[in-house]
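Let us practice reading a record.
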Amino acid sequence: MDNEIQLISDGDGLAVIGNATDVDRFLVSEGLSSKDLGLQRLKSVFGNGSAVAQAGSEIAANSGRWVKLTPKSAALVKKYRLRESSKTGFSTGVLKGPRGQIRGFVEFAKAPRSFLANPAVLASAAGIMAQLAMQQTMDEITDYLVTIDEKVDDVLRAQKDTALARMIGVGFVIEEAMTIREKRGRVDEITWSKVQTAPTTIAETQAYALRQLDAIAGKLECKTKIGDLAAAAREAESMVREWLAVLARCFQLQDAIAVLELDRVLDASPEELDGHRLGLKAARQDRLEHISRSTERLVARMNAAAGTANTKVLLHPTKSPAVVQSSNHVVTGVHDFHGRLGIESGRQPSDARRWVEAAVEARDKALETGAKGVDAARNLGNETLDRASSVKGKLSSGIAERARRRRGHEEERHEEG
C-alpha cells in the first residue's frame, strides 16, 4: 500500500505531513531541518461527530513538521511541482511511494480523509504555520540583539518619553503570556486580557524610533562642511545601532502578540482563523514596508555622505575616511537588520573607495588639468604626499615624485625667464 506525504507551502514555510517515519525520511533525504508543526492542537479545536472532526483526528494522528522557506526548501515547491490554489493561495501536493520510499509523483488529494481536501483543517494548519514563521523571526531577532550587544531596556530607560518607558513593562507582560501559552497549549481569555492593550504601546515606540532615524538622516543631509559631516556620521553610527535594536524589539513583540492572537481566535472562533491570519499578514507587511522606507532613506543619506567625503579627500585626508567608515558601518548594520526581519533590501553596504585611492585619482586629475591642478596638488603639502606614499607604495610614490619634478620644472622656467 502506498504511503502519502502531504506538502503545503504558504510562501513563508513548508509543512510536511504524514507518517512520522516517512516524514523524517523525506526531510533527511532533502537535507532539511524542521520544527514540530503541532498538529495535535487541532484535536481540541473541532467538535466530535462532524466530518471536520474526523479529518482533524486523522491529521492529528500523523506527524507534521515545519520547514522555514529558504532558497533550498523553496526549490522543493518547483522540484515536486506543487500547485498553487487561487482560492487559498497555498501551494499543495501529495507524494506517494511504497513502504515509505517517497517518489516524485505529485497529485491533488481527492480522498475525503485528506488533509488538503478539508478547508477548515487546512485553514487551521495554515494558522499554525504562520505562528511558526513568526516565532522563527522572533528567535532570529533575539540572536540579532545578542550579536550587536545592544540592551534594548537600557536604551529605553535612557529616554524620557512615557511610551518608551511603558515598552519595558509591555515586554514583560507579553513574555509571561507566551510562557503560559507554551505550558498550557492555548491562550485563554484571562491571558489574552493581559496583553490586549500592548499593541498601542508598541506602535508608539516604533513610531518614535522611526522618527529618530529620520532625524539622523535629516541631520546628515543639512551638513555641508566635511568636519560637521564627520561628526554627524560618527554620531549616527552609534545612534542608528541603538534605534535599530529598539525597532527589532518592537517587531519581535508585535509578532508575539500575533502568535497569541491567532491562538485566541483558534480557540474561540476557529471558523474566522483564516481571515484573521490574512489580516495579520497584511498588517505585518505594512509594518515592514514602513520600516523599510525609513531605513532606506537613512542608507541613501549615509551613502551620499560617503560620496561627498570621497570627493573631498584631498583637502580632508583624515576626516573623509572617517565619514566613509561610519557610513559603511551604518549601511552594513541596516542590511543585517533587514535580513533578520525578512526585508528584501536592494541596497548593499556602500563599496566606498579607500581614501588614498580617491586621493590618487583626484591628484592625477589635478596634475593633468594644468596650473590650477598643480596648485591644488601643491596645497596638499608634504605631509599628505608622504601619507599617500606610505599607503599606496610605488604608485603613490611615483605620483608624489611627478608632482615634485613638475614643481622643479616650473622653478627652472621661472629663473630662465
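A brief commentary: The two ends are 106 Å apart (CA to CA).
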